[in-house]
Design goal:
single chain, alpha+beta, FAS1 domain, seven-stranded mixed beta sheet, 10 strands, globular, disordered N terminus
Length: 236
Amino acid sequence: MQKRSYYKLRYMMLFVMSTAVLGACKKNNYLSGGTINNSNVRMTTYDYLAGNSLNQFDSVLLIIDKAGLKDLINQQGVTFFAPTNAAVYAYLNARTIAMQKVDPSAKYTMDTLFKYDLARMADSMRMYVVNQPLTYDKLTADGAKYATQLPGDTAVVAFMPTNNAALGYFNQISTVPQIVTYFQLWQPLADPFQAVNIPNNVGVMNICQTSGIQTTTGTLHVLASFYPLFFYGTQK
């Protein structure tokens, strides 16, 4: 994929976001909703998600609870790229559409997931966990490959500059804002590479709608809800 077509596609997605999303310039802050917040929270990653005032993670945490993964996302020093409830709902809907091609009355629900697919869900959730703290100072614009806790799975994480006004850029600022991006790789990616040029048949990109949160157990980045849980249906 060429850089120009990449930005055209990504910016079309980014403009639909109602919340400004970028990494803060100061390493001890994160930015969400246009307001700079202190990144250090005095609670675990799980408790921080459970205490979200908008209840954006209830379904995600239910899967984590049922799958017995609370200790995984609270493991000391890991980074969790948290999906939101919207990603769960998109996944359930996509699975329903696939099932209805065979049985028009079929419906894939949370109950279906827990009854038939819980073991697989327990494995797949591990694609969102990296065994090291990926803070702003560890990330680069070109990105780097990181093994996730899902065996054989690799993600690319980058801290990319943006000139998108919807993400906080305007021409009076002295420092160009940056966003944390997560690429789920579906195929091997040869070195050297630049994240901006990863073809969409190799990896699917998502941005973090909130990033740089430091809990008492690790680092937390929250993924924007562009794709279903587990990036279902994005593999080309």
